[in-house]
Protein: Glutamate dehydrogenase
Organism: Gemmatimonas phototrophica
Amino acid sequence: MAIDLLRLPTDSIVRPDKDRFLNEENPFEAMMSRFDRAAELLDLEPGIYKILRNPEKQLIVSVPVMMDNGDVEVFTGYRVLYNTSRGPAKGGIRFDLNVTLEEVKALAAWMTWKCAVVNLPFGGAKGGVICDPLSMSVGELERVTRRYTKGIISLLGPDTDVPAPDVNTNERVMAWLMDTYSMHVGRTENAVTTGKPVEMGGSLGRKEATGRGCMLVTKEALTHLGMDLNGATIAVQGFGNVGSIAARLMAQQGAKVIGISDRAGAFYNAKGIDIDAAIKHVQQHRSLEGFTGGDAIDAEELLTLEVDVLVPAALENVITTKNAPRIRAKVICEGANGPTTAAADPILDEKGIFVIPDILANAGGVTVSYFEWVQDRMGYFWSEAIVNERLGDIMTRSFGDVLQLSKQHRVNMRTAAYMLSISRVATVHRLRGIYA
Ligand code: GLU
């Protein structure tokens, strides 16, 4: 008897709750509303729909830390493994005062779709600690990292859950995490995390990878629209690792970055901002505060500048129903995770704005994380040229896959990206079946 590998038994198709997308605050709802739309178009059977709506594991840990002044603080940390059907869970850890479980769940789901859209053999995860790293000393940061790592150590491992940097964490934090894990298992285990310093198993090109991926897909999008990155005007919201590197690489391709912003302020220069000078300023002053390479403008104004490409590269829920009607960019490249609320999507569609969705646009980071994990496991390291070439292949191919699906189903790039990734995850669930 032929076994139908492609579908689980089903009696009715998915009918998602259409009102869910009205919530512009909760990122998990924003993720779910996009998921629902793609699930409906894919005619996803209820069994798989139910499985994919729920995170596999959610761990909440208390993180007691002795502060420099002798007081004990107790922080709260999360790690969510959303789905591991395609491979070990993969996703960053953020340190931020605004971290919530709902946010970490959404980010873990986004990692699942992101890894699948670029076809990496990983599932999705995310972690976070509610804390203000900017007000902490290096010693306090190290103790938070180590105690949090110990708290979630039952999940971690190169075959189970592999963290990486995210908002307010970096290669130094990953080095402490790797050391803490290695001390507990009694051997040096490089592949337990990615985004490490190059001197200790990190990959060349990893730090620049997310910004490079943004530049590559923007180039593809502009070519598709009959435009050129060379000479295009750009505004970048968020000038951290992703935004600053994307700006620099786009400028190197001949683009004119006329607006940049971070939490300290927004700056405009019609002649083009000197991105290297801006990066140097941030290295010296920790933010753009006091930057003189452009006129200070309002943060909201930056989002509505008349540009070819807008790159939101900071946090969630930046493009909302309130400002979407005023956005004048032709292309939006979502360097951040979840920068656009689900309710704002139809407004951007109506205006004919071509949105490169986060799960595709910022997938360069996790793609080179995958390369780092592979190199660590082989113990054989690649040149930066090879890393960049392979990253270029994956980003260009993935952009093409999503674009083709969007034309085929007459849907926007976001829905097409969700359809592609959900169908890949769903296929693995069908093939593996349900363990009983
Ligand atoms: N934090 C990054 C992201 O959101 C990288 C994750 C990773 O490399 O695992 O994509």
User: Anything to note?
Assistant: The longest strand covers residues 72-83. The domain at 56-203 is CATH 3.40.50.10860 (Rossmann fold). The two ends are 22 Å apart (CA to CA).
